[in-house]
Amino acid sequence: MNGEPHVEAARSSIQPVMRSEVFHDPATDVVLDVISSGVAAADVITIHATCEVEYEGRAAGYLGLGDRIILCKPDGTLLVHRPTGNDPVNWQPPGTTITTETEDGNPVVIGRRANPDEVVRVVLHTVALCTRVDADDTAPLELSGTEADMHQYILEHPDEIEPGLRVLEHERDTPYGSIDVYANDSEGRPVVIEVKRRQATLTHVDQLNRYMTQYRTSNPNARGILVAPAASEGVKRALEEAELEFVGLSEFAAQNTNVSSTTINDFTPD
Amino acid sequence: MNGEPHVEAARSSIQPVMRSEVFHDPATDVVLDVISSGVAAADVITIHATCEVEYEGRAAGYLGLGDRIILCKPDGTLLVHRPTGNDPVNWQPPGTTITTETEDGNPVVIGRRANPDEVVRVVLHTVALCTRVDADDTAPLELSGTEADMHQYILEHPDEIEPGLRVLEHERDTPYGSIDVYANDSEGRPVVIEVKRRQATLTHVDQLNRYMTQYRTSNPNARGILVAPAASEGVKRALEEAELEFVGLSEFAAQNTNVSSTTINDFTPD
DNA sequence: ACCTCCATTTCGGGA
DNA sequence: TCCCGAAGTGGAGGT
User: Which residue of B has its CA nearest to A114?
Assistant: First the structure.
């Protein structure tokens, strides 16, 4: 049964199914053929193999023999996954050119890209499984609870930040960074707001402080507010020292994204 | 051939091979059994399926029908990959509990974790392929060209930063952030060095500036140097305004990690 | 557990 | 293309 493909074609035009081929314990030439023909046909290729991985580019790496799952996507993505961990142990982002060669009779998968110039080389010592499927996926990911949603909420409910706040501008780019929200307070003072969807950190203070330091040279009375669901004591101290303010929007704390009766839950498709 | 497993056991104790089972176009109960038994056996499970994905946790998401590859790892990692993109469209990091259920006769994969409380639910409408393999991988990843390597290089070659520089300390933690390198220049002035292994950005300037602002209250003549392979004009301007300096270490520019005769190339295993 | 920072970060948007 | 900042960032290391 070695190398014998099990083909399952689409069974109907109404509900098309992924066309898939599986090669069990395939010989080297079968692996090479599946990869090259699969890449040419824009299929997704998965390989279960004991392999070795070399990487050279922005950094350089070597990974000795082990059992991994290799994924080759039609957009050039190359992923090498270990049996543990969220992130691939080696990878190559979209835009990579995937080719093959042999080394000591073993099939080798090569992912090469320019800018940055990087190569990942996967030497397949024992291939347990090699598959190619024709995958079609155009559904948009609908995601809510992002920072963009929080911006929208603030634009529509400025009083939640501070009574009398009037929003004047959203996402203004400047040479010293971009401002999330520009507003005036009830006394007409300029207010710059930096929004974070999760616990505020020092880098967030930095970001606001960088802009405010510049802005205050021409607007000494300008206020800077960091808006986030929460902030550590260190962050609050850093804010005070920079004469900046913190406003906690606990509605946006984690595990509370499905608030009803607000606009936060409105989906914002790609 | 539906649901019939193709089993390939290890063939020798000398060179063990991944034990693998493949189910082609499996029925719902087969999918459910493969997942639950595979999870129990600490196997890696891959599913090629047309599916729907729901996510709720720090944010909330919905992904309509499409062809994807689902990966379940024995450490609880759950990955849903589209045919494009480096990153999974939905995922659950290690530590997740993977369970199954059915919905309208379709198998459903559920990944649930606490802290943060998050759930990913994958509704499998048509499963083309379902595999489980017993993967073993203990090889350490050897990686060079990281920021740690750059630190080491600077510690051993301080003159590359500036003639006469004497390094006094490495990685000092403070309430206002950690310093990469603390040194004295040829005139005895304190020098704080922030090291970046790639093109410097404004946030890197922030990081150095945050600390220097504090440090200079007690050491007004202290110098702050950002060391990186390169920096944009905006970064250099921001540095000047904060009275900080930039030193370009072009040896560490991308695509130049394999410099010979230096220590940068020494592997630093996990 | 919290906080900070690196990452071969990747990804998307704007100039 | 570069530059900048978000991400359901993940992961490591220290306190």
Answer: B255
Asked, for residue A118, whether it belongs to a domain, the answer is: yes
CB-CB neighbors (< 8 A) of A48 in chain B: 18, 20, 44, 46, 131, 133, 135
Q: How many whole angstroms separate alpha carbon A98 and alpha carbon A91?
A: 12
- B182 with B128, same domain: the answer is no
**CB half-sphere exposure, B55, CA atoms < 13 A:** 24
Task: Inspect the interface and report whether the beta carbons of B60 and A234 lie closer than 8 Å.
Answer: no
Residues lying close to strand C (Cβ under 7 A), chosen from 22-81 of chain B, are: none
Q: Which domain holds residue B213?
A: 147-259
Q: Of A139, A173, A190, which one is at a domain's C-terminal end?
A: A139
Domain with residue A233: its CATH number is 3.40.1350.10
Q: What is the pLDDT of residue B255?
A: 45
Distance from the Cα of A186 to chain B's closest Cα (Å) equals 31
| pLDDT confidence of residue A250 | 79
pLDDT, tens only, B211-221: 999 999 999 99
Phi, psi of A130 (to 5 degrees): -140, 120
Structure tokens at A199: 């616990």
Determine, yes or no, domain membership for B269: no
pLDDT band at B31 (very low <50, low <70, confident <90, very high): very high
Nucleotide at minimal C1' distance from the B232 CA:
D3
3-class SS of residue A204: helix
A266 touches chain B (CB under 8 A): no
Mean predicted confidence (pLDDT) in B156-177: 92
Q: Which of B96, B120, B139 is the last residue of a domain?
A: B139
Cα B139 to its chain centre, rounded Å, is 17
pLDDT in tens, A198-250: 999 999 999 999 999 999 999 999 999 999 999 989 999 999 999 999 999 97
